[in-house]
Target: Pseudouridine synthase
Amino acid sequence: MNDFDDAQAAGSSDETGIRLQKVMAAAGVASRRASEELIAAGRVRVNGQVVREPGRRIDPAVDKLAVDNVAIQLDQSKRYVMLNKPVGVVSSLADENGRPDLREFTDQYEERLFNVGRLDAETSGLLILTNDGDLAHVLAHPSFGVMKTYIAKVRGVMTPQTVQRLTTGLDLEDGPIAADKARLLETSNGFSLIEITLHSGRNRIVRRMLKEVGHPVVDLVRRSFGPLHLGNLRAGAMRELNGAELGQILTLSRSNDSIVPAPTSEPGE
Model:
């Protein structure tokens, strides 16, 4: 790589860009003075390259910024919302059968938000709503395999041997599957509560796995999606991601550059 390539990899070197410390301050990273100190300390990367010159100019619409290896969103028009999807709502923006859908929630925002992945109507829990098409495309892509954790209430008293079967692997009609983690939380009155973590995005996979081992699901909640956790967000409630969560999810989405970017048009259903 020659000097010209190095300059392009680390952002714009001409006068058309915006000074790096100004961009950082506008993004809420730190004041301009503090941003200059971060740059001088080698803690700032532009397009994966460490930049130590505070006078470096970058294009916020194109260049990717990270501080301490945590991605920073420079496009202030992007919105990222966590929803605790309630039971009975389909993960669609226009359900053709007239069932309650996500418009109940997305219509509360000026921006056109769409869901990252899906939860079936009978499953509640964490769903991301955003207008960031690239992030949504990457995180929902089958090859990416974001870790997701569910808590399921199932019929019957589950044994440790059955829990082990979930992680050892099962043969379903669409191929073998194994949970990355599984642990029994409690058993009571003929029901069991189990926590399952897996990266598969196959349709209704948790329900099908539990049915296969003889414990059909009564209630299913997705508690986490990648680094995001539902916490005490009540069913039907929403909140915007905080700065730390946004940095984590952006960093995750940028960690696999092999996935083809989403089309420039807004994704449909």
Notes: The first strand starts at residue 18 and ends at 19.
